[in-house]
Amino acid sequence: MCIPETQLLRLVAGELADDERLALEAHLSSCASCRAQYEELRRSWEILGHWPLPEGPADLTGSILAAAAAPTPPDAPAITAGTRRAGRRPGWLRVAAAIAVASAVGVCAGLAIPGGRIGTTSVARHVTMEEVVWSLGLDVLGSDTGLTDGVLDDGDPASPQEDLR
Amino acid sequence: MHRAATMSARSITQPDEGPRAGLPGDTELMSRLADGDMNALAQLVRRHQRTVWALAYRVTGRWELADDVTQDTFLRVLRSAASYQASAAFSTWLYRIATNLCLDALRKRRTVAFPDDACAAGTAPGAAACDSGDSMERAERAEAVRREVAALPERQRVALVLHRFHDQTHAQIAQALECSIPAVESLLVRAYAQLRQRLEPWSD
User: Fold this and answer.
1) Residue B197 CB contacts under 8 Å (≥ 6 apart), including other chains
2) What distance in Å separates the CA atoms of residue A90 and residue A59, rounded to the nearest whole number?
3) Residue B169 touches partner A, C-beta closer than 8 Å
4) Relative to the CA of A38, which of A58, A63, A159, B34 has its CA 20 to 30 Å away?
5) Residues B60-95: pLDDT tens digits?
6) How many CB atoms lie within 10 A of CB A25?
7) B161 inside 8 A of chain A by CB
8) How far is CA B158 from CA B166, B180, B203, in A?
9) ipTM of the complex, rounded to two decimals
């Protein structure tokens, strides 16, 4: 293939200036290999357009402003995804939750939960540490308790090395 | 009452940086917000929430996560208002925040089975309306696309959604993902290659 696929992507996405586009189209008209690659990209592009987006919630302004107005404790963790919509858990609850998760991990480790539901999916599977943390709402605690260290690690498991800067 | 909207165009409405008729631009609103004007936050939310929610929904695949990411995005906008630099385009900055929160949400849910689309499964608000007017084939194709995008590695998924559904250029995606342009291009090439192979049976 003569043309880099990234350039063909730009053509499909309509990102090229007119002179670049015309030059590329002229090449495609005479190069079967590049034209085939372009057509595959174009088909992928088009079929992605068949994924409709729900209209979504009417308006989140009210809940956002309410959360913005909620008092933030001085020791509250930084905002991460999944922060509850209003308020934070008080300090005593953190201690209780920390004790509870330690017990829950011992109970849930290695157990299968037949018929358990995650969202809309019914599955029979093993419970993981992450699910225990999440189900108890401990994810908002971050590393404050130390018990979620190593559980909520960052990093893409598919390609931990490839996507670095 | 929610209803499914067919997205025949490339993307939803893009964030409008400049002032509309009689309305302040994003930079002006951020300046007001830095001064404590919460009405400025409300205007930013109304102007951009749909964009942020759409990104979060397509990346996380979960309605409630999309709501959370959207809320957390604007809370972060609020908390960062004082340090916002107008030299950076507001939409670029907003996408970076939302992208990071989407990736956070995905990593926290990593071992949870990726749920079926709540709309198709009938558990999202107004989900009953999803089937009205849709042929079985269109619904199945939409589900196939959703499922294959969800199967992409996280960063590939984010790059693809930003590219295909949010009109973001390679450079803009690089800013959102805080990586190099070649890294973005690598993500996109691999994402489209995987989708091309898996969605071939559904192409016209």
Assistant:
1) none
2) 29
3) yes
4) A159
5) 988 889 999 999 999 999 999 999 988 778 999 999
6) 13
7) no
8) 11, 15, 22
9) 0.77
